[in-house]
Protein backbone atom coordinates (compact mmCIF):
# COMPACT_ATOMS: atom_id res chain seq x y z
CA UNK A 1 0.00 0.00 0.00
CA UNK A 2 1.40 3.40 -1.04
CA UNK A 3 -0.57 6.29 0.48
CA UNK A 4 -0.48 9.15 -2.03
CA UNK A 5 -1.73 12.41 -0.55
CA UNK A 6 -1.69 14.39 -3.77
CA UNK A 7 -4.90 14.58 -5.86
CA UNK A 8 -3.06 13.00 -8.81
CA UNK A 9 -2.08 9.47 -7.92
CA UNK A 10 -0.76 7.44 -10.86
CA UNK A 11 1.08 10.52 -12.20
CA UNK A 12 2.69 11.23 -8.85
CA UNK A 13 6.35 10.73 -7.93
CA UNK A 14 5.17 9.39 -4.57
CA UNK A 15 3.50 6.53 -6.43
CA UNK A 16 6.42 5.93 -8.79
CA UNK A 17 9.74 7.55 -7.78
CA UNK A 18 11.72 6.59 -10.89
CA UNK A 19 11.38 8.50 -14.19
CA UNK A 20 8.99 6.94 -16.70
CA UNK A 21 10.62 6.23 -20.03
CA UNK A 22 8.47 6.36 -23.13
CA UNK A 23 10.09 4.97 -26.26
CA UNK A 24 8.96 5.93 -29.74
CA UNK A 25 10.84 4.32 -32.61
CA UNK A 26 13.80 3.83 -30.28
CA UNK A 27 13.83 7.45 -29.11
CA UNK A 28 13.25 7.51 -25.37
CA UNK A 29 11.50 10.39 -23.60
CA UNK A 30 12.57 10.57 -19.95
CA UNK A 31 16.13 9.42 -20.49
CA UNK A 32 19.45 11.22 -20.86
CA UNK A 33 18.89 12.20 -24.48
CA UNK A 34 16.81 15.30 -25.25
CA UNK A 35 14.24 14.25 -27.88
CA UNK A 36 13.32 16.78 -30.56
CA UNK A 37 10.03 16.77 -32.45
CA UNK A 38 9.98 19.19 -35.40
CA UNK A 39 7.81 20.05 -38.36
CA UNK A 40 5.17 22.43 -39.60
CA UNK A 41 2.21 23.63 -37.58
CA UNK A 42 -0.07 22.11 -40.23
CA UNK A 43 0.38 19.63 -43.06
CA UNK A 44 -0.26 21.62 -46.24
CA UNK A 45 0.92 19.30 -49.04
CA UNK A 46 3.08 16.25 -49.64
CA UNK A 47 5.88 18.44 -51.00
CA UNK A 48 5.83 20.75 -47.94
CA UNK A 49 5.78 17.86 -45.46
CA UNK A 50 8.49 15.92 -47.29
CA UNK A 51 10.81 18.91 -47.61
CA UNK A 52 10.35 19.84 -43.95
CA UNK A 53 10.81 16.30 -42.67
CA UNK A 54 13.98 15.78 -44.71
CA UNK A 55 15.41 19.07 -43.45
CA UNK A 56 14.64 18.50 -39.78
CA UNK A 57 15.91 14.95 -39.96
CA UNK A 58 19.20 16.15 -41.46
CA UNK A 59 19.48 18.66 -38.60
CA UNK A 60 19.03 15.89 -36.03
CA UNK A 61 15.31 15.87 -35.15
CA UNK A 62 13.99 12.52 -33.89
CA UNK A 63 10.27 12.73 -34.67
CA UNK A 64 8.12 14.89 -36.94
CA UNK A 65 5.08 16.95 -36.11
CA UNK A 66 2.28 18.25 -38.31
CA UNK A 67 -1.39 18.98 -37.69
CA UNK A 68 -4.07 17.44 -39.91
CA UNK A 69 -6.92 18.55 -37.64
CA UNK A 70 -6.25 22.13 -36.54
CA UNK A 71 -8.00 23.86 -33.64
CA UNK A 72 -8.27 27.41 -35.00
CA UNK A 73 -9.63 30.45 -33.18
CA UNK A 74 -11.63 31.41 -36.27
CA UNK A 75 -13.91 28.96 -38.08
CA UNK A 76 -12.89 30.76 -41.30
CA UNK A 77 -9.18 29.91 -40.88
CA UNK A 78 -7.57 26.83 -42.45
CA UNK A 79 -8.84 23.84 -40.49
CA UNK A 80 -6.27 21.30 -41.68
CA UNK A 81 -6.27 18.64 -44.41
CA UNK A 82 -7.95 15.96 -42.30
CA UNK A 83 -7.36 12.33 -43.28
CA UNK A 84 -5.50 13.42 -46.42
CA UNK A 85 -2.97 15.16 -44.13
CA UNK A 86 -2.61 12.01 -42.02
CA UNK A 87 -1.91 9.96 -45.16
CA UNK A 88 0.77 12.43 -46.22
CA UNK A 89 2.52 12.11 -42.86
CA UNK A 90 2.32 8.33 -43.00
CA UNK A 91 3.95 8.40 -46.44
CA UNK A 92 6.68 10.79 -45.28
CA UNK A 93 7.29 8.47 -42.31
CA UNK A 94 7.91 5.65 -44.80
CA UNK A 95 10.37 7.82 -46.70
CA UNK A 96 12.27 9.38 -43.78
CA UNK A 97 11.78 6.99 -40.86
CA UNK A 98 10.57 9.88 -38.68
CA UNK A 99 7.59 8.91 -36.56
CA UNK A 100 4.50 11.10 -36.44
CA UNK A 101 3.15 13.36 -33.67
CA UNK A 102 -0.26 14.80 -34.59
CA UNK A 103 -3.26 16.32 -32.85
CA UNK A 104 -6.58 14.62 -32.25
CA UNK A 105 -9.41 17.01 -31.44
CA UNK A 106 -12.43 14.86 -30.63
CA UNK A 107 -13.21 11.43 -29.17
CA UNK A 108 -14.75 10.23 -32.45
CA UNK A 109 -11.51 11.11 -34.31
CA UNK A 110 -9.28 8.98 -32.11
CA UNK A 111 -9.67 5.77 -34.12
CA UNK A 112 -8.88 7.50 -37.41
CA UNK A 113 -5.89 9.49 -36.12
CA UNK A 114 -4.51 6.45 -34.28
CA UNK A 115 -4.45 4.55 -37.60
CA UNK A 116 -1.75 6.89 -38.96
CA UNK A 117 -0.08 8.55 -35.95
CA UNK A 118 2.62 7.31 -33.57
CA UNK A 119 1.87 9.88 -30.84
CA UNK A 120 -1.55 11.43 -30.18
CA UNK A 121 -1.30 15.13 -29.36
CA UNK A 122 -3.92 16.74 -27.13
CA UNK A 123 -3.90 20.49 -27.76
CA UNK A 124 -3.99 23.25 -25.18
CA UNK A 125 -7.69 23.94 -25.88
CA UNK A 126 -8.60 20.33 -25.18
CA UNK A 127 -6.57 19.71 -22.03
CA UNK A 128 -9.77 19.49 -20.03
CA UNK A 129 -11.90 17.74 -22.66
CA UNK A 130 -12.51 14.78 -20.39
CA UNK A 131 -14.31 12.70 -23.02
CA UNK A 132 -11.24 13.05 -25.24
CA UNK A 133 -8.86 12.24 -22.37
CA UNK A 134 -10.87 9.09 -21.61
CA UNK A 135 -10.84 8.13 -25.30
CA UNK A 136 -7.05 8.42 -25.69
CA UNK A 137 -6.69 6.71 -22.32
CA UNK A 138 -8.40 3.69 -23.81
CA UNK A 139 -5.79 3.36 -26.56
CA UNK A 140 -2.27 2.15 -25.84
CA UNK A 141 -0.63 4.92 -27.84
CA UNK A 142 1.75 7.52 -26.41
CA UNK A 143 -0.03 10.82 -25.74
CA UNK A 144 1.55 14.28 -25.84
CA UNK A 145 -0.63 16.25 -23.43
CA UNK A 146 -0.28 20.02 -23.78
CA UNK A 147 -0.93 22.27 -20.81
CA UNK A 148 -4.07 24.36 -21.10
CA UNK A 149 -3.20 27.98 -21.80
CA UNK A 150 -5.04 28.97 -18.63
CA UNK A 151 -4.47 25.84 -16.57
CA UNK A 152 -2.40 25.29 -13.48
CA UNK A 153 0.29 22.64 -13.20
CA UNK A 154 -1.98 20.66 -10.89
CA UNK A 155 -4.79 20.77 -13.45
CA UNK A 156 -2.36 19.48 -16.11
CA UNK A 157 -1.47 16.58 -13.83
CA UNK A 158 -5.14 15.85 -13.15
CA UNK A 159 -5.69 15.64 -16.92
CA UNK A 160 -2.77 13.21 -17.19
CA UNK A 161 -4.46 11.26 -14.41
CA UNK A 162 -7.63 10.93 -16.55
CA UNK A 163 -5.59 9.27 -19.31
CA UNK A 164 -3.64 7.08 -16.91
CA UNK A 165 -6.69 5.99 -14.91
CA UNK A 166 -8.04 4.51 -18.15
CA UNK A 167 -4.99 2.25 -18.29
CA UNK A 168 -2.72 4.22 -20.63
CA UNK A 169 0.39 5.31 -18.73
CA UNK A 170 2.27 6.58 -21.80
CA UNK A 171 1.75 10.28 -21.17
CA UNK A 172 4.27 12.96 -22.13
CA UNK A 173 3.53 16.38 -20.62
CA UNK A 174 4.07 19.57 -22.61
CA UNK A 175 4.56 23.12 -21.32
CA UNK A 176 3.57 25.39 -24.23
CA UNK A 177 3.21 28.76 -22.53
CA UNK A 178 0.37 30.27 -20.55
CA UNK A 179 -1.61 33.50 -20.79
CA UNK A 180 -0.34 36.37 -18.69
CA UNK A 181 -0.72 40.16 -18.87
CA UNK A 182 2.33 40.30 -21.16
CA UNK A 183 1.33 40.99 -24.75
CA UNK A 184 4.70 41.19 -26.49
CA UNK A 185 4.87 37.42 -26.76
CA UNK A 186 1.97 35.16 -27.74
CA UNK A 187 2.21 33.35 -24.39
CA UNK A 188 4.58 33.32 -21.43
CA UNK A 189 6.82 30.27 -21.22
CA UNK A 190 6.42 29.03 -17.66
CA UNK A 191 9.96 27.76 -17.29
CA UNK A 192 9.21 27.00 -13.62
CA UNK A 193 6.81 24.32 -14.82
CA UNK A 194 9.75 22.17 -15.97
CA UNK A 195 11.48 21.65 -12.59
CA UNK A 196 8.12 21.71 -10.78
CA UNK A 197 6.82 18.88 -12.96
CA UNK A 198 10.06 16.93 -12.62
CA UNK A 199 9.56 17.19 -8.84
CA UNK A 200 5.86 16.24 -8.80
CA UNK A 201 5.69 13.57 -11.47
CA UNK A 202 7.67 10.75 -13.06
CA UNK A 203 6.24 11.55 -16.51
CA UNK A 204 8.50 13.05 -19.19
CA UNK A 205 8.27 16.81 -19.80
CA UNK A 206 8.56 18.45 -23.20
CA UNK A 207 8.61 22.19 -23.97
CA UNK A 208 7.05 23.87 -27.02
CA UNK A 209 9.05 27.10 -27.48
CA UNK A 210 7.13 27.96 -30.68
CA UNK A 211 3.68 28.42 -29.14
CA UNK A 212 5.23 29.65 -25.88
CA UNK A 213 6.77 32.65 -27.62
CA UNK A 214 4.83 33.11 -30.88
CA UNK A 215 7.92 34.63 -32.54
CA UNK A 216 10.57 32.70 -34.43
CA UNK A 217 13.29 35.06 -33.21
CA UNK A 218 12.70 33.87 -29.63
CA UNK A 219 12.43 30.14 -30.26
CA UNK A 220 16.14 29.35 -29.95
CA UNK A 221 16.57 31.13 -26.61
CA UNK A 222 13.44 29.50 -25.19
CA UNK A 223 14.66 26.08 -26.38
CA UNK A 224 18.01 26.52 -24.66
CA UNK A 225 16.30 27.66 -21.45
CA UNK A 226 14.03 24.61 -21.55
CA UNK A 227 16.92 22.17 -21.90
CA UNK A 228 18.93 23.97 -19.22
CA UNK A 229 15.90 23.68 -16.91
CA UNK A 230 15.71 19.92 -17.41
CA UNK A 231 13.19 19.34 -20.21
CA UNK A 232 13.19 15.83 -21.69
CA UNK A 233 12.32 17.11 -25.14
CA UNK A 234 11.28 19.95 -27.42
CA UNK A 235 8.52 20.31 -30.00
CA UNK A 236 9.37 22.98 -32.55
CA UNK A 237 7.57 24.41 -35.59
CA UNK A 238 9.63 24.47 -38.80
CA UNK A 239 8.38 25.50 -42.26
CA UNK A 240 10.29 25.74 -45.56
CA UNK A 241 8.54 29.04 -46.33
CA UNK A 242 7.07 30.57 -43.16
CA UNK A 243 5.74 33.63 -45.01
CA UNK A 244 3.40 31.34 -46.94
CA UNK A 245 2.45 29.04 -44.04
CA UNK A 246 -1.26 28.30 -43.61
CA UNK A 247 -0.86 28.66 -39.84
CA UNK A 248 1.69 29.91 -37.31
CA UNK A 249 4.19 31.23 -39.87
CA UNK A 250 5.35 33.99 -37.45
CA UNK A 251 6.70 31.42 -35.02
CA UNK A 252 8.01 28.89 -37.57
CA UNK A 253 11.73 28.52 -38.15
CA UNK A 254 13.23 28.18 -41.60
CA UNK A 255 15.23 24.95 -41.89
CA UNK A 256 18.63 26.69 -41.68
CA UNK A 257 17.56 28.42 -38.45
CA UNK A 258 16.51 25.04 -37.06
CA UNK A 259 19.99 23.74 -37.93
CA UNK A 260 21.55 26.55 -35.86
CA UNK A 261 19.13 25.86 -33.02
CA UNK A 262 20.10 22.18 -32.89
CA UNK A 263 23.79 23.06 -32.67
CA UNK A 264 23.29 25.58 -29.86
CA UNK A 265 20.80 23.45 -27.94
CA UNK A 266 23.32 20.61 -28.24
CA UNK A 267 25.90 22.73 -26.43
CA UNK A 268 23.47 23.52 -23.62
CA UNK A 269 22.51 19.85 -23.38
CA UNK A 270 26.18 18.89 -23.04
CA UNK A 271 26.68 21.57 -20.37
CA UNK A 272 23.96 19.98 -18.22
CA UNK A 273 25.13 16.41 -18.78
CA UNK A 274 22.64 15.51 -21.49
CA UNK A 275 22.91 14.60 -25.15
CA UNK A 276 20.64 15.40 -28.05
C1 LIG B 1 0.04 23.08 -32.33
O1 LIG B 1 0.85 22.30 -31.80
O2 LIG B 1 0.11 23.45 -33.51
C2 LIG B 1 -1.02 23.65 -31.46
C3 LIG B 1 -2.22 23.98 -31.94
O3 LIG B 1 -0.59 23.80 -30.18
P1 LIG B 1 -1.40 24.32 -28.89
O4 LIG B 1 -2.53 23.34 -28.70
O5 LIG B 1 -0.36 24.28 -27.82
O6 LIG B 1 -1.87 25.71 -29.19
MN1 LIG C 1 0.89 25.74 -34.32
How would you explain this protein's 3D organization?
- With 276 residues, the protein is of the alpha/beta class.
- Helix content is 36%, strand content 14%.
- It has an 8-stranded parallel beta barrel, surrounded by 7 helices. Strands 1-2 form a two-stranded antiparallel ribbon.
- Helix 2 links the parallel strand 4 (63-65) and strand 5.
- The longest helix is centred in the C-terminal third of the chain and has 17 residues, at 255-271.
- The N and C termini lie far apart (38 Å).
- The structure holds phosphoenolpyruvate and manganese (II) ion.
Q: What structural category do the secondary elements indicate? A: alpha/beta
**Could you tell me which ligands this complex binds, including any ions or cofactors?**
phosphoenolpyruvate, manganese (II) ion
Give the low-confidence spans: none
Shape: globular
Query: Could you spell the SSE succession in H and E letters?
Result: EEEHEHEHEHEHEHEHHEH
Largest sheet: 8 strands, parallel, barrel
Portion in beta strands: 5-15%
Q: How much helix, percentage-wise, in residues?
A: 25-40%
* Widest sheet, order of strands: 3-4-5-6-7-8-9-10
Query: Can you give the mean pLDDT?
Result: 98
Gyration radius, rounded: 17 Å
Cα distance spanning the termini:
38 Å
Count of helix runs:
9
Q: Report the strand count.
A: 10
